[in-house]
Structures are given as structure tokens and as C-alpha cells.
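1st attempt posting a full record on here, be nice pls
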Amino acid sequence: MTAPLLAVIGRPNVGKSTLFNRIVGGRPALVHDTPGLTRDRRYGEAEYFGTEMRIVDTGGLDLEAQRDVIGAGIHRQALRAIDEADALLLVVDGTTGLTAVDHDLAKQLRATGKPVFLAVNKIDHQTRDHMVHDFHRLGFGEAYPISAAHGRGIDALLEAIANVIDPNRTVPAPQKDEDDITSYLGDEDDAPEESPAPDPHEASQPLRVAFVGRPNAGKSSLTNRLIGEERSLVHHEAGTTTDPVDTPFSIGGRDYVLVDTAGIRRKAKIDADIEKLSVTMALSQIERADVVVLVIDAEIGPAEQDARIAGMVEESGRALVIALNKSDRISGDTAKSTLRELTKDTFHFLTWAPTTLISAQRGDGVDRLLDLVDQVHKEARRRITTGELNRFFAEVIEEMPPPLYNGRTVRVTYITQATIKPPTFVLMTNKEDGLAPQYRRFVSNRLRERYGFRGTPIRVVVKARKDRHKEGAD
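the predicted structure (as C-alpha cells):
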């Protein structure tokens, strides 16, 4: 069965592509402050706690802009997206206020008879929440204050959408009557001890590995070394690779698809339109990959741009291996020690990502690289049973209970793993805002200490447990 389609609609420059990227993960849509940059429909897929959906990003709708040829094409593409969608997400800019174009779009969307959700973007702090009120005049009921750039309010918006497009959705963890985790652990017979079995279809699919990095780091040479032939053109001039190149590859009974991508330079250094498109397509491969290998020229060493790329991988939730290529040119213990320290400092925020030395030209370390790719992919698909997680979390609470929130105790009822790739853990509490980001990071660090998860990001999210007694009173 095809997942429901959600169309992201709005006037130019309100943050539709940024929101699209936030929902689907990675950066499959190019984002820039130039109105009209998005011209075609861009599709992506997302899952919100068991509810699958397809997302389509559209160009900005503006009656004035559609008078020229390009504007008219953008308009046609957006209208087609509206027509084929099951639900519509109207994005407006909270900082500029309600406009005549917003009114026209609201009227047009309402006429479709489809569910419409209103997202008021660029509300990046609660002090701006009052900006939402004016948009209630559009007549869509709830208006969701969000910041697509920072992720604020996205959870509430997605939950509302999921409840409408999938009315039969189930909560990914059981509800318990006990008020604390110790009583939950005392009744393990009711706990879902076994996580869902791995999807055998997914296990039989080739492992998709994307090689990304700055120009001339040796991505194409690495691809050629692995497959044993010149599948990708290699040249000393940066920018030889433009389109991502998919290459099926098998070794030791394991199937892979190797993806060689264009070098990713800093935006300030990208001039030609074709290079901009190539970089955009390279970034989109991060979201499509099972594992990303960040290839770095060891002679030059990792730089700020490598850290940016690694940050994109972490944000997308993909498993990551850092490969220091051309390591055969690094001689002497002092030089190697300096390289290790520079790598550690550059990727200080990714202590979980393994680093390996390779030489694509000579073949040194390439077998080890594939072993790491297999290992981090296994970790990204790892599941921990709910019973085991709650036994672990009882120890965490004993070590450091959640801090008080507004002078009141925050109770964590239970913890469960909701998804894999990346492993995502849900803490059910009596106060959704009661667990500060610092405490979630503390829990994340303890999860890594206990279970590893080497090479994959993990997510720790908080959801408020519904008060059954209050619902009964209503």
C-alpha cells in the first residue's frame, strides 16, 4: 500500500524546503534565500513513530511571479502536487505576518476539501509565539508554531498530521498504570520484551554506501579500487565527478551499491550552476545511503568543511565512517600523531564515528574499511528490548534522577526503542518539557556506554504520557 502524500505549499521564501529537509532528513532540497529557487516537485519519505508518509516539496506560489515562463512552470508543478496529495501543509512566515498571498492560498487549499495543516515558520523562540495568533484568521483551526531551521515544534506538527493521515496508528510502546519505572520493572510479564524482528526484505537488499567529501579527496579512486576497474573518472582537477555514480559491487557474499559523488565545497567557492546542482545531488545521496563514508585527504587533513559534511550526515541519521585517504603519504610518528589529534579536534562532536587510515591508490586499509561499513550498519539496525532498556534505565535514574522542573518531580514512566536507522529511544514522562536537552544527552551517553552503537547516531526523544484519570473525568 502506498503511503499517504503530504504536499508542502506556500508562497516563496517561507521555508518550505527547509521544512521538507527537516522532515525527511538530510538535505535533498536546495535551500537558499533567493525566491523561486525550487522549481520542480521534490519527493521524500518520512516515518513518524510507525506512520509512513511521502512528502513533496513545491516551488513558491505567487500570482505575480507566474507571469514569466519559469514562474508559470513553478505554478503548474505546485498545482499538480496539490492535486495528487492526500493532505496539504500550508507554510507561512511568522516574522512577516499574514499577507494577501497567504489568504489566496488558504482559499485555494480549502476548496480542495483535503485536510490542511497550517505551519507558522520562523518562530524560533517561545517569545515569538504570539506571532501565530494573526494566522488564525485563515480559518484552519490549530496553527503550529515551528522553526524548520532549528527543529522547534516539528514533533507536535508531525503528530497532528500522522493522526489524520493514519487514524488507526498505534503508540509504539505500551501504556502502564504505574507511575514510576521501578514499578514497571516489577511487572515484566506485561512489557514487550521482544522488539519487532528485522525486516528480511531489507536484510536481502544491497548495502548502499555513499562516498562523500571535498573535491580531490580520492572518492572516485576509492570506488575504482574496490570494484577493480575505472568506473569513475579520476583526474587531479577538482570537479571531475558531477552526477552521483551508482555501482553494484559484491564481495564475500555481501552485495553493495557504491555511490561516488561530486566533491562538496563551501558555498562561497561554488560558482557554476552545474557545480551547484552536482553538490545538491551529492548531498541528497546522504539521505539515500545506508552508510556514509566521509573521505578526507590525509595530506591536507580534515578541515571545517569536513566537519560541516559530517554534521549533515549526523543530522540525517545515517551511519558514518571517516576514511583518511592517501595515508601512505604520511610518514613519521610525529606526522601521524598530529593527524590523529587534528581529526579528533575537528570531529569532537562525533566521538562515536570510527576513523580509519586508507590508501585508495595502493589498496592499504580498504578491506578494513568495508569491515567497518558492515559493522556500523549492523549497529544502526540494532534493537534493544523494552524490558532490557528499563532495567538499564533504572540504573541510570539511580545514578542521576531527572532534575526538578518548575520545582516539581519529573517521572519517567518507561523507555522504549521506537525505530532503527538511527536507533531512536522514547522516554515517556509526565512532563514533556521537563527533561532538558542536557539530561537527554546524559541518557544518550549512558546508552552508548552500555550498548555501543558505534558508528551510528542515536536519538533520545521525550513524549508526555496521557493522564488517564483526567481523560476519565472529562
